[in-house]
Amino acid sequence: IAGITQAPTSQILAAGRRMTLRCTQDMRHNAMYWYRQDLGLGLRLIHYSNTAGTTGKGEVPDGYSVSRANTDDFPLTLASAVPSQTSVYFCASRTNQRNTEAFFGQGTRLTVV
Amino acid sequence: AQSVTQLDSHVSVSEGTPVLLRCNYSSSYSPSLFWYVQHPNKGLQLLLKYTSAATLVKGINGFEAEFKKSETSFHLTKPSAHMSDAAEYFCVVSFLRTGANNLFFGTGTRLTVIP
Fold first, then answer.
1. How far apart are CA B89 and CA B46, in angstroms?
2. What is the tens place of the pLDDT at every residue in B48-100?
3. Which domains can be identified in chain B, with CATH numbers?
4. In terms of residue numbers, what domain contains A54?
5. How near does any CA of chain B get to the CA of A49, in Å?
6. Which of A36, A79, B31, B35 has its CA 20 to 30 A from that of B76?
């Protein structure tokens, strides 16, 4: 079934540890995004990628890094997790045309303790 | 500057009564507009989208929205609420300039449906 897959679905992480959230899509979409969702704040963009080999910073990039080695995968890395990074993380993809909707993964619930 | 505002953080309606979720946007460019729904512990699902064709857009599950340029609004409506409509709803705006960093989210409206 075509779509976008995130892993893990949830994780409890000790502060200071490194963590990579995985995201894979099979729709051959050029653009991919990482958002975090926090109560009352909606979804905030962390990083994005217009196409394989390029990435850009979103609204809240500090403490996060991404890579886009190929079209399908867009991992998000927390180099040294802090409690304020406790959140639900969503990966999304879409074509680069403005009229097209984004498709979302099911989310990763991350708790940093 | 581009932005999107959802005017109500929480809306509560009785089952069988109409639903109105409000969304206003600010943009210097022609927008595309989307409504997404998120059920508890789920990802976001597209309800409907406006892409400069008909101003009244019909979506899934009986929802519809009307684009009003003069009011810079894109309010979501449904004639009769069902219990299964209880969820979080997000208004999302995309602007004329292409590029992956042009999706703007509202802060969401939580819809409660009372039996």
1. 10
2. 999 877 889 999 999 999 999 899 999 999 999 999 999 999 999 886 555 54
3. 3-114 (2.60.40.10)
4. 4-112
5. 7
6. A36
